[in-house]
Amino acid sequence: MTDDEHYSHIYLDTAASTPVADEVIEEMLPYLKERYGNPSSIHKFGRETARAINLARKRVAEMIGASSIREITFTSGGTEANNLALKGTAIHVQSKMPKKNMIITSSIEHDAVLEPCKDLEDRGFVTMHLPVTGEGFVRPSELKNVISDNVALVSIMYANNEVGTIQPIKELVEITHQAGALFHTDAVQAAGKLPLNVKNLGVDMMSLSSHKINGPKGVGALYIRSNLKILPIIHGGGQEWYLRSGTENVPGIVGFGKACELANKRMRHYQEHVAGLRNYVVERVLKEIPRSRLNGLRTERIANNAHFTFFGVNGEDLIIKLDENGIAASTGSACSVKKQKQSHVLKAMGFSYEEITGSLRLSLGMHNTKDEVDRAVNVLSSVIEELRELSPFESKYVG
Ligand SMILES: Cc1ncc(COP(=O)(O)O)c(C=O)c1O
């Protein structure tokens, strides 16, 4: 792809990753150039980068309403934050209270939660996956029915990465705490799109990722409520409160901090701009493209997400055709594409093979314009018509 083609491509895949904001790059640059000290060093160079990390920690804490910077532990991203939350908590709790060997999660979590759960199963823990409704919601009553005092941890995502559903976290936290268990939420897709307040929600832990909120890749954080003890999963020099050893990714952390500050400031504008464009796309698609359906509800979904099923179309073919025509979109989770499996999220929502195969996720961002989304819907409409005409299973005479 030439540079010109790259810049004329319309990017509708912000659930996979986002462009790094100019302000973030500016803030990071000195830490890639002259400010290269190791934050653990005592000299001026070290103190300079240690101060920068502290400022970033403060900005992350502010974005989620944490009461102290001590509650923020930087990681290499959302995946590591989830691993730390799940393994670090489960192993610690069980060492103190051996009968607490159960973990409850949902059937629509990201692999960054499901896989650590599998790992814990191999170590003798019992995991339970709550079902979801056809619209992708965990029912608090389902949690109430199965929770017991054998449960060490409940981990339910705040917003889903494929269909964008927002879960009733506060209610789920209350049920969890009444049963004497801890609550973790993967808020990787919710951050920057919803105002987050860990204290109001009452969560014990929350995972965040920088590259979903216009920050750099390879950095994230785990919020851990004060006085909650969990065990590290990476051991070494004792950085990050002894919870995550290794010399800190200073430029990344600085960029993540700035991205959190920006996300916090622009929240209302983000919601207006991005949800406005998203609603417009949904209206046009449902009106203009026959046999299309929006998955999930119109409300209780994050501002950037529109997830459709186009009956009689193969989503993979659709993505390739869209890409050839200058539109970057996705069928679902970018992180599981390598595994070439059908979406476990859509399966859990009870979708048929055809409904899953014909699915498309458009996820928008601050960089998108009305003109872009108009062009995207026009292309989508004609590509779908073309694919349906080519399909051996489609007949024009079928209603
Ligand atoms: C809900 C959710 N959790 C976790 C992750 C993993 O985050 P990271 O890419 O920072 O490891 C993702 C990434 O797509 C995600 O969507």
How is this structure best described in words?
- This protein has 399 residues and is an alpha/beta fold.
- It has two domains: 3-19 and 266-390, Aspartate Aminotransferase, domain 1 (Alpha-Beta Complex), CATH 3.90.1150.10; 22-265, Aspartate Aminotransferase, domain 2 (3-Layer(aba) Sandwich), CATH 3.40.640.
- Helices cover 42% and strands 13% of the residues.
- It is built from 14 helices and twelve strands.
- A seven-stranded mixed β-sheet has the order 2-8-7-6-5-3-4, with helices on both faces.
- Helix 2 (22-32) runs antiparallel to helix 9 (250-265), helix 4 packs parallel to helix 5 and helix 11 packs across helix 14 (370-390).
- The longest helix is centred in the last third of the chain and has 22 residues, at 267-288.
- The model is unreliable at 395-399 (pLDDT under 50).
